[in-house]
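User: Here's a protein and a ligand (adenosine monophosphate). What would the complex look like?
Assistant: Let me lay out the input and then the predicted complex.
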Amino acid sequence: MKVINTIQEMQTEIIKLKSHSKSIGFVPTMGYLHEGHLTLLKRARVENDIVVLSIFVNPLQFGPTEDFSSYPRDLARDQTLAECEGVDFLFYPSVEEMYPHSLSVRVVVEERTDVLCGKSRPGHFDGVATVLTKLFNIVMPTRAYFGKKDAQQVAVVEGLVTDFNYPIELIPVDIVREDDGLAKSSRNVNLLPDERRQASVLYKSLAVAKLAVEGGERNPHVIKNLISNMIQSETSGLIDYVEIYSYPQLKQVDNLDGTCIIALAVKFSKVRLIDNVILEVGQEFGGGK
Ligand code: AMP
């Protein structure tokens, strides 16, 4: 595995590989790798000639009061894990390399950002879309892999790839969870021990909601209340949102029907966690997957 710190070197390598018709699988991350990231890498390894992993904690997508400085980082550990997954190139640029001067152009996401994390984190998805635009131009991937844990991000990136005509195949990958159901996240290490125990309630509440839908419940308010009550009574976390929308459009639904996302965000003392389930809801019978 080759570690590359500069944009120019990364582009030169990629152009060389493309001239030999190699397919490039790209997994963009912020590092502190866990099983979720590794699942994306494994998939990329199987489907492409070359696998590029990027690790970049992108300041542009963090708000002024968010956890940019306390975001966990451990390059040595990540390097070992990436090597074990057969990554060919680890692209690890500095902030100065990616943003040498204030941006003269920035990508603004127009749709699907007035809800969920886009609403709670103003400017977050503009930061994500801007860095991904740069990364896509640097890595020029054939396929790019994203986790459904960040389901709104998947929807936004679909818009970016379609609207800006990137010849990239987007591959959404299922959420990888801990044994107790908690979605794996680099941020989980910043939970206090008590909070870590409580955090499994997030997924349990989504599982209860899914059961209710499978049992025939179609009223989003009833389902959201089920989830909120569970989180409020069983955790010390503060609910940021519990919402249900059509997916991937992220439009409000009066009744659950078709593909819907049930998504939540909960703030603990030092970390804000997100999770979701995406359900295929039939007219008469439940059938969540
Ligand atoms: P991050 O490093 O948090 O920016 O995540 C990098 C990529 O890994 C994103 O596409 C995430 O959606 C994905 N990812 C993070 N956690 C998980 C998980 N538990 N399961 C599946 N994918 C994940």
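Summary: The mean pLDDT is 96.
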